[in-house]
Design a protein that fits this description.
heterodimer, A: TIM Barrel, 8-stranded parallel beta sheet, two-stranded antiparallel ribbon, 10 strands, about 15% strand, B: alpha+beta, Jelly Rolls, 3-stranded antiparallel beta sheet, 3 helices, about 25% helix, globular
Chain lengths: ~280, ~140
């Protein structure tokens, strides 16, 4: 892979990574109960190999502070990102706890986390709730992005209606300098998510997840049928971030799917990594 | 009669990958102390296969390449739908079908404490949807 075109997977859940679970079988059971993931636990080395065969240089590992605890725990994730330059950590934080949430945010960012993952309907809040504004204000000051879950959720207790990307609009308009990423292109509300990214300077979309077929079928449908290649090229080239959503889909299959789409090279390079480098303020990848 | 069972874990390196596990099978045989009997090698996965073949780099590429032509990724597969059991979409029918063609177990006779194998024969785990950590169970049965 050329050093000039880094590839970054912006959406990886290390919930079945051995090192993140620290051998805790009860924690593994909790992960399976919350996320309904049936695939086998893998060592970090296997994830690194999955990313390498996909040509990916770095991956954003996400924790979520669920009602059953942080999955995976921020402590385990902090150790992984400290010891592996391939991985970037987004902290799992419950933003509804006022000053406690802000203290936790500051502490985790000081430990090397580069962003925050929020999953409002799973965590039991609405993004536009004004009680969270102090938290958003501090995230904005710290200049790190928030990745919001939007679009289809496979989690049983999560209502699809609460995953609509426009749920995040009040946050975006109230904190115009806050960097916001809408996960999964907001699928199936792709146009709504896309127009958020077009209209608001600091809103981005991640391409992760497959919801209506194989990776090739899904990515082709989203980028060439729902949206059009011309629209993606002229309006969203600087706003889409490649992501897989592992372990719900393998990075290699997602990279192959994006490669199968007719796309100008500069657009491909931005989506696959350059946009993420810019958003995360990464230097040499 | 002795029965010695040993799980072996390997992390495959690529989406399709022939992993030579002959050394692991010999090691299990030595550990068992069995001099005469059978070694049974079994993969606990549905997207891997097992085979005995020549350890020649060209063949290690030819076998998965031929399988991919025989069972292409593109196609209409009933398996490709939301699979609640795994909390994700199933997208790898081709890997399951290729694995079915390969088979999931091998049996090798043992005599005088050695595997009865031809000079060119090696034992392979065939990864068909990697890279992943995979479990192979080696069971040595005999005296």
């Amino acid at each position: 892979m050329s050093r000039l075109t880094p590839k970054i997977d912006f959406h990886v859940h290390p919930v079945i990574i051995e090192e993140a679970l620290s051998g805790d079988r009860r924690l593994e059971e909790t992960v399976r109960e919350v996320y309904h993931i049936g695939t086998a636990v893998q060592p970090l080395d296997a994830l690194a190999k999955m990313l390498r065969v996909a040509g990916i240089d770095k991956a954003v590992l996400l924790s979520i502070d669920t009602p059953r605890g942080c999955l995976p725990p921020n402590d385990s994730l902090a150790a992984i990102i400290r010891e592996n330059r391939m991985f970037i950590g987004f902290a799992g934080i419950n933003p509804t706890k006022g000053d406690e949430s802000i203290d936790e945010l500051e502490n985790l960012i000081s430990q090397g986390f580069r962003g925050v993952k929020l999953y409002p309907p799973l965590q039991g809040f609405r993004p536009g709730d004004k009680r969270l504004y102090g938290f958003y204000e501090r995230v904005q000051q710290l200049n790190v992005p928030i990745l919001f879950h939007t679009g289809v959720s496979w989690i049983k207790n999560v209502k699809l209606g609460e995953c609509h990307p426009l749920e995040v609009e009040k946050v975006v308009t109230s904190f115009p300098a806050l960097k916001v990423v809408l996960a999964h292109m907001g699928f199936p509300w792709v146009w709504e998510a896309a127009m958020m990214a077009v209209k608001y300077e600091n809103v981005y979309l991640d391409l992760s997840g497959v919801f209506m077929g194989t990776p090739k079928e899904h990515i082709s449908y989203v980028l060439t049928k729902l949206l059009t290649p011309g629209f993606v090229s002229r309006f969203l080239a600087d706003k889409i971030l490649f992501g897989s959503d592992w372990p719900r889909i393998e990075p290699f299959k997602m990279v192959e799917a994006v490669k199968s789409i007719p796309m100008e090279k500069h657009v491909f390079d931005k989506i696959m990594g350059l946009n993420a480098v810019k958003l995360l303020g990464l230097g040499e990848v | 009669m002795k029965i010695y069972t040993k799980p072996v874990y390997v992390v495959s390196e690529a989406p399709t990958h022939l992993v030579n596990i002959t050394g692991e099978v010999y090691k299990a045989l030595r550990e068992s102390g069995v001099k005469s009997g059978l070694v049974h090698v079994y993969t606990t996965h549905t997207t891997t296969g097992l085979t005995i073949n020549e350890d020649e780099p060209g063949l290690e590429q030819d076998i998965p390449l031929f399988l991919s032509k025989l069972v292409p990724e593109e196609g209409e597969y009933f398996h490709h739908h939301y699979y609640a059991k795994d909390g994700r979409l199933a997208v790898n029918a081709w890997a399951h079908i290729r694995a079915s063609l390969m088979g999931n177990h091998l049996t090798i006779p043992v005599d005088d404490g050695k595997l009865i194998m031809g000079s060119r024969q090696k034992i392979y785990l065939v990864e068909l949807d990697g890279p992943q950590r995979r479990r192979i169970v080696i069971q040595v049965i005999g005296e």
